[in-house]
Fold this sequence. Notes:
A: mainly beta; B: seven-stranded mixed beta sheet
Amino acid sequence: EDQVTQSPEALRLQEGESSSLNCSYTVSGLRGLFWYRQDPGKGPEFLFTLYSAGEEKEKERLKATLTKKESFLHITAPKPEDSATYLCAVQAVVAGGSEKLVFGKGMKLTVNP
Amino acid sequence: DTGVSQNPRHKITKRGQNVTFRCDPISEHNRLYWYRQTLGQGPEFLTYFQNEAQLEKSRLLSDRFSAERPKGSFSTLEIQRTEQGDSAMYLCASSRQQISTGELFFGEGSRLTVL
């Protein structure tokens, strides 16, 4: 069964203190790995898609990387507005195709001013 | 772009009652998805429509759950004979492209509380 595990479950940073979030996955075949951001009471908001090991994507203070077993979301010099829950999800290669994303539990990031 | 709209935003019901949620996707999006999210968990896939066709259903979608998208525009998710375990946030998402791009646009969700 496809699985996504995120660590740590929660992280508190001071403004400007860089860190990384980990997403490890187990799938029969990876079609894509996705990062979303979710604010309290809101639906997830798309950040990145990664398709193959070695790929990297950047957006403002966020940089996502992918290996064959895990992905990292690096946050450089975070600001309080980066506080949110970050979700990792995978789409597996399935015979006949599947539009299902399998999400991890998420990682709650709090950035203190 | 008005975004994905979901109604009602909150629903409190008694066990055994039926509830229906509505989702209005972004107008040009032909793909529509339903997910369920409980506290402290990530979203779980329920079902997927392309236009009016329901092409994929999760095993989570028991026979008490039914989803429709009659004209390929808005969608409804009905839960019959609700149980306390159905309490969750029901998220709708839409997309113009295949999920492999990852760019789903989620609504703010409909929160269900079953007493």
